[in-house]
């Protein structure tokens, strides 16, 4: 077995991507070596990067050995602000501090509930496309489509008025930037708390079917399971986790379908049949959550021949794992007819994504509809001019200028 001391060379994390359509080369090299390797993060600490599909599943399943608690010593934080910003939120907790809260949220995000939103999503998508068609070209599809759809959908799920979407988006965008100064993160966090707090307060006298209303009226006031502040924190989390992620995926998926006309033709030949597998394949291919999941080891454990000691941090690299050649045939190829559904783009284990059903339906609706209505959609710039944000928690496009 290898010990920690033998792994001394630790590249800076987030890792550099040489090709925007592939995982970072170092992550692939580490994966192919078969063992976890150390990387160096912003504060000089050197957590382990796990890159193999089987090892990530091992780590994320062993909740007694690898904790999600962001306040524990050795947790590989994204900034000094992280324990303050996220320390009290269930998704950075374990066991009894995680599961009961997850159970409170689950009913709003079941496959059935998300499926029921499909007609409304189709309506919103069509409305956005109607607007696109009136705009002067080129149009930035990130701002006017990819971001607009999930923002409206998550605001509707929560019961936040549509007019608030810009403020909501600006604050939450800051929270996922890894390099933003700490004071700005604190300010964005407080602004978001204040906005959601006001809405939640109002839901006491004006209840509706949204999640914020249910949280405050049922889980705070009726059952006393949450404090008001905890409920506000959940609303903030759902907003933060719920639109930037899906927006990046919608943008990246459009780009992939523009680049690969053969895949686009398959999708459009029978959207009802291919949209679900297209979504799973895009999730695998892009794996846009690129700096998570993170954990801290709480009991010495061997992973891939390396002894990981209690107190050492872990970062899972989903992009490398979802192209693991031991799991996926022709892993580098985008193939929307692929039948293996083993990707871990939504995570794995008890912390697996709460909003995955909602995101799936949004993508299933958005991609076919866009290309059906604008068949000649194409890039308005050279592909090499596209700018990707590589340093954020989620990978994605800064803009997607298109024309038709
Ligand atoms: C394409 C879109 C999305 C991707 C790729 C994605 C990815 C992920 C991943 C990888 C995790 C696991 C994190 C970990 O284990 O530490 C996660 C957890 C989570 N996601 Fe998503 N997500 C997406 C959309 C959403 C949406 C729409 C919501 C809104 C409800 C959401 C809410 C959450 C929450 C609350 C958690 C924490 C769950 C827990 O700890 O129990 N996500 N997501």
Automatic annotation (TrEMBL):
- Is this entry keyworded DNA-binding? no
Keywords (alphabetical) are: Heme, Iron, Metal-binding, Monooxygenase, Oxidoreductase
Q: Which InterPro entries match?
A: Cyt_P450 (IPR001128), Cyt_P450_B (IPR002397), Cyt_P450_CS (IPR017972), Cyt_P450_sf (IPR036396)
Keyword Cytoplasm appears in the UniProt entry: no
Q: Which SUPFAM superfamilies match?
A: Cytochrome P450
Q: Which Pfam families match?
A: p450
- Family according to the record: Belongs to the cytochrome P450 family.
Q: What is this protein called?
A: Cytochrome P450
């Amino acid at each position: 077995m290898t010990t920690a001391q033998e792994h001394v060379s630790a590249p800076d994390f987030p890792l550099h991507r040489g090709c925007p359509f592939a995982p970072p080369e170092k992550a692939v090299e580490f994966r192919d070596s078969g063992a976890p390797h150390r990387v160096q993060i912003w504060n000089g600490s050197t957590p382990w990067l796990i890159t193999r599909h089987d090892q990530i599943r091992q780590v994320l399943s062993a909740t007694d050995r690898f904790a999600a608690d962001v306040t524990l010593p050795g947790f590989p934080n994204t900034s000094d602000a992280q324990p303050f910003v996220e320390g009290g939120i269930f998704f950075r907790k374990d066991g009894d501090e995680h599961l009961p809260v997850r159970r409170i949220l689950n009913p709003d995000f079941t496959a059935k509930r998300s499926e029921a939103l499909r007609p409304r999503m189709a309506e919103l998508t069509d409305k956005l496309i109607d607007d696109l068609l009136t705009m002067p070209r080129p149009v930035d599809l990130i701002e006017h489509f990819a971001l607009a759809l999930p923002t409206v959908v998550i605001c509707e799920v929560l019961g936040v008025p549509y007019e608030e979407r810009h403020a909501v988006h600006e604050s939450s965008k800051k929270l996922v930037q890894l390099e933003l100064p700490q004071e700005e993160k604190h300010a964005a966090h407080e602004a978001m708390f204040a906005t959601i707090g006001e809405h939640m307060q109002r839901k006491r006298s004006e209840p509706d079917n949204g999640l914020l209303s249910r949280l405050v009226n049922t889980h705070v006031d009726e059952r006393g399971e949450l404090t008001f502040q905890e409920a506000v924190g959940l609303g903030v989390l759902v907003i933060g986790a719920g639109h930037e992620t899906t927006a990046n995926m919608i943008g990246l998926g459009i780009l992939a379908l523009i680049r690969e006309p053969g895949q686009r033709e398959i999708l459009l030949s029978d959207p009802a049949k291919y949209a679900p597998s297209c979504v799973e394949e895009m999730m695998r291919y892009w794996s846009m959550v690129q700096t998570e999941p993170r954990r801290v080891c709480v009991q010495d454990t061997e992973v891939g021949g390396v002894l990981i000691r209690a107190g050492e941090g872990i970062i899972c690299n989903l992009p490398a794992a979802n192209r693991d050649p031991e799991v996926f045939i022709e892993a580098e190829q985008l193939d929307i007819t692929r039948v293996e559904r083993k990707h871990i783009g939504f995570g794995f284990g008890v912390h697996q994504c709460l909003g995955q059903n909602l995101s799936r339906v949004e993508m299933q609706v958005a991609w076919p509809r866009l290309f059906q209505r604008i068949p000649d959609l194409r890039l308005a710039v050279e592909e090499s001019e596209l700018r990707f944000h590589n340093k954020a928690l989620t990978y994605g496009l800064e803009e997607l200028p298109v024309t038709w």
